[in-house]
């Protein structure tokens, strides 16, 4: 597991997204799963980024941030989950005051392929 990076990561919405943590030691439903958890403060209640815009950010994060970090990973993960949260929240915790969006992807031919949860 790795933890928070302070440098903002460029996303289509322009919101200041930062990495909270990467988790690869928790099993997923599809086998080996890597989770990339990001802080995205503008998705929260009253924020300026709606789900459709956040989805574009998630796809961009998978393609431009996640894929380069998986290059050469053995064994390759069966699934990658990219999540956005408007506030830090421990992995697996729920809080009705925190907005979170999750999307799952498989990796094929160097691209993130959306997988229905």
Automatic annotation (TrEMBL):
Stored Pfam families: DUF6497
InterPro entries, A to Z: DUF6497
Organism: Cereibacter ovatus
Protein name: Acetolactate synthase
Lineage: superkingdom: Bacteria
